[in-house]
Design a protein that fits this description.
- By secondary structure, this protein is α/β, with parallel strands linked by helices.
- It contains 28 helices and 32 strands.
- The radius of gyration is 28 Å and the shape is globular.
- The protein starts with a strand and ends with a helix.
Length: about 800
């Protein structure tokens, strides 16, 4: 269907199937798309779901963000992904890259990331750089470009400032490729290959994400990347530009309305006196803040110190997600007044609130969002508000009115959007790129039917603006872009004998942030069910931990417990832990408690990618798991993780101390009576115990215990809960601890969309001689929906073929 949509302008969509024009009406096309691919809410005029913005853009260009237009990924000759596991974290972007590469095999992809991730399956070159060495790498690239004459002389001389100073500082820190390679921990040959690729392809898009941003020198890293694009004139052109893909779906929309402590609404700057006066005049405000507010980390430091007495937290879970998270929790416990607006009644943060305000979720909201190509799209709620939940704007207005403030008498989102549009145009006259004055006079009906449109759209304009900076005029006083000279700096906290490893944190494929919503979806819990610490085999030997066992990860700031996962994709000296698990879903898995609180001095972004830690065994006497239709309370165990299954809950558990009577322990756990149908096996000598509670021939609960973590397949047992009644083979398998029919065990879930397991995939590869992820998809449907598992399919295909060859 990627060929079925032809977008020809911001206000209309032509929908084609097999070359036949079906409609040119946006709303009809939207309904057709729903029918074709079964989505609940398709924005047919904008399929790219990236968000964007980092402070480096503001420093380089003086204002708004560099646009990544819809076709740039398709037109690029070279795509560089820096600090981004795009395949897992931005699957739509990854699928676009994969489709472009399939159509144009000459398209080159370079992945720059300390870990070898799923994204590397598609890469022509992977640079596993040393954490924190990005500035050295791109300073080295800039120096190499200069020495080899790879410069757009006209662009640099006439449309930029600061190149000479930038080149001088870059050369001083990264003069020779051998020096750069050593600083970055890379093979010199690989480094030179990257430099040559960058120089040889004028259409280069550099996409950078949290691996760059989440650093105490994140702003410098961004500017180092932008410097290379400025020097070669690769900006404002089709198929070229630096671009940030951030972690939030509506990051650009949030910044448009002033969603940072350093910003005013409509992309105006709090540090700019003229901007402050513009906003104050427009709102007829008696006073105006003239200093930036506190950024997230320093905000909670201030609460902890007692300088802030009241806080209102909206749509976030800082007790889990912020660094030094134990301090965040302690701060909220002692804060005089804590209010939380959330869509979930139970989160780690909500538990500490005195006032809990039920907010609307995505499917219930009405308003606009803005994607990475500056395209404003109407979001129309399609579910009713549950219970007492209310829209965020309504909650804010009602609180403001009760505090005695005027100017909050909005009838609905239409009024708010109209005011927002008027402010963007107020005293503008082209001085600020963000201008949607052309939408300021929309009435309720026109706003309801607003089709996606790209800003700027000033008053009098009939269409939006597809691409900025084509005239090489930037949002600075003289219209010239700024080179920003940056020098490499080590992370704030370095490793030591006590904390010898570097902790890197990030997302997994099927979960989002602190799992308050994705953790409730059975289809999303099967891929990565437990918190884990991923490390190289050699490093595990040095630290005395074993694959599949539990380990404690500790830093100066806190500790957590996770299951060890050995992987050659991790460099020695580094470990990776996902960010998602909370005290609602696991016993000791808040990795935010371990992460150090160092931040970037400009952006305030925490250093999530570099915390010195140690890893040591978390000793237990037995391991087990429980699957139950009935709710269970297992928080007394030394270790537990709760996973939502289909019609049941699953608990991974581990305990200390010897259980004298496993049968009594198991029956008490399963809440079984004397006359219940319980299949049970116990071998006290070996420490093995398993039991299953069956009612009316249907599985109700089961428990498996062993002194070792090598327990039976959870996927096989999960499947038994879906059967209307168990047969004799099922009962035999429960007693044996393995399925009587080996094919009943599908293995760990690879494709969450269709529930396809690893063993099913490898069996199909062998038996049907499958040779590509596309053939696997045609056979099993795996990888044919969201596509985020396609790199794993490719990896399984390669491993299976190599195993057969061996």
């Amino acid at each position: 269907f990627s060929q079925a949509i032809e977008v020809y302008g911001p206000d209309s969509v032509a929908f084609y199937v097999s070359g036949q024009l079906l409609t040119e009406d946006y709303y009809v096309a939207n309904k057709l798309m729903k029918g074709y691919i079964g989505s609940a809410n398709i924005d047919t005029n904008s399929r790219l779901c990236m968000s964007s913005a980092v402070m480096g853009y503001k420093r380089a260009f003086g204002g708004d963000l560099v646009p990544l237009c819809y076709e740039d990924l398709e037109l690029a000759e070279l795509i560089v992904l820096v600090g981004s596991n795009t395949a897992w974290c931005h699957p739509i972007v990854y699928q676009r890259i994969a489709a472009a590469k399939a159509q144009r095999p000459d398209l080159k992809l370079v992945v720059i990331d300390p870990r070898r991730t799923a994204t590397c399956e598609l890469a022509d070159l992977h640079l596993p750089l040393k954490p924190g060495s990005d500035v050295a790498l791109f300073n080295g690239l800039l120096t190499w470009l200069h020495e080899h004459g790879q410069v757009d002389v006209d662009f640099v001389e006439n449309h930029t400032q600061g190149a000479a100073e930038c080149l001088k500082l870059a050369a001083g820190s990264a003069s020779e490729p051998a020096q750069v390679a050593a600083a970055c921990g890379l093979r010199e040959a690989d480094l030179r290959e990257f430099f040559v690729l960058f120089a040889a392809h004028s259409k280069t898009v550099t996409l950078f994400s949290q691996g760059v941003n989440q650093s105490s020198q994140g702003t410098d890293k961004v500017n180092a990347i932008i410097n290379c694009h400025l020097y070669t004139g690769r900006i404002g052109k089709p198929g070229a530009g630096p671009f940030s893909i951030t972690g939030q779906p509506n990051a650009m929309g949030g910044r448009e309305v002033g969603g940072l402590s350093t910003m005013l609404a409509a992309h105006m700057d709090l540090a700019n006196a003229e901007h402050r006066q513009t906003v104050q005049t427009f709102w007829d405000s008696p006073s105006m803040a003239d200093k930036p507010g506190l950024k997230a980390v320093e905000l909670f430091d201030a609460i902890h110190a007692g300088r802030i007495k009241a806080v209102w937290i909206m749509a976030t879970n800082p007790v889990v997600s912020l660094p030094n998270a134990d301090l965040v929790r302690a701060a909220l416990k002692t804060c005089d007044f804590v209010a939380v607006s959330d869509v979930m009644a139970q989160t780690d943060t909500v538990e500490l609130a005195q006032v809990k305000l039920p907010a609307l979720g995505w499917a219930e909201k009405d308003g606009t969002v803005t994607n990475s190509e500056r395209r404003i799209s109407r979001q129309r709620g399609f579910l009713p508000a549950p219970g007492e939940a209310r829209a965020d704007w309504w909650i804010i207005c009602e609180v403001a009115k009760r505090l005695g403030y005027t100017g909050f008498d909005y009838a609905g989102p239409t009024d708010i959007f109209a005011e927002h549009a008027r402010l963007s145009a107020f005293e503008n006259q082209g001085a600020r790129v963000f201008d949607i004055g052309g939408l300021a006079e929309l009435d309720a009906e026109a706003y309801a039917r607003l089709a996606p449109v790209q800003w700027p759209l000033p008053a009098g304009a009939h269409t939006g603006t597809a691409r900025l900076f084509t005239d090489h005029q930037f949002q600075t006083a003289d219209g010239k872009a700024r080179f920003v000279a940056v020098a490499p700096r080590a992370p704030v906290h370095v490793t030591s004998q006590e904390y010898p490893l570097v902790l890197n944190t990030g997302r997994v494929r099927d979960h989002w942030h602190t799992m308050t919503r994705t953790g409730k979806a059975p289809t999303l819990g099967g891929h990565r069910a437990e918190p884990y610490v991923q490390m190289h085999t050699q490093e595990a030997l040095r630290q005395g931990v074993q694959d599949g066992a539990l380990a404690r990860v500790s830093s100066r700031w806190g500790q957590m417990v996770a299951r060890v996962e050995l992987s050659s994709d991790m460099p020695p000296g580094e470990v990776f832990v996902p960010i998602h698990w909370t005290d609602q879903t696991a016993s000791h898995a808040r990795v935010g408690a371990v992460v150090n609180p160092a931040v970037d001095p400009v952006s305030g972004e925490p250093e999530f990618k570099h915390t010195p830690v140690r890893v040591e065994p978390f000793l237990v006497d037995w391991h087990g798991f429980v699957l139950s239709r009935r709710p269970l309370q297992l928080r007394s165990q030394a270790y537990w993780v709760k996973i939502q299954g289909q019609d049941f809950q699953r608990f991974e558990i581990a305990g200390r101390g010897q259980v004298r009577n496993w049968e009594a322990w198991g029956r008490n756990l399963l809440a079984s009576g004397e006359n219940d149908d319980v299949l049970e096996y116990c071998d006290p000598a070996s420490g093995l115990y398993r039991a299953a509670l069956i009612e009316q021939e249907q599985m109700q609960a089961c428990v498996f215990v062993s002194p070792r973590p090598d327990l039976p397949s959870r996927a096989w047992l999960s499947g038994l809960f879906g059967k209307p009644q168990l047969d004799a083979l099922d009962r035999s398998g429960l007693l044996m601890g393995r399925p009587a029919d080996p094919k009943a065990d599908v293995g760990p879930i690879v494709c969450s969309c269709y529930g396809v397991g690893q063993k099913v995939i490898t069996r199909a590869i062998r038996e049907q001689d499958l040779t590509s992820p596309a053939e696997i998809g045609a056979c099993l449907k795996a990888g044919t929906n969201c596509g985020s598992c396609q790199p794993e399919l490719a990896s399984l295909l390669r491993a299976t073929r190599q195993g057969e060859a061996a």
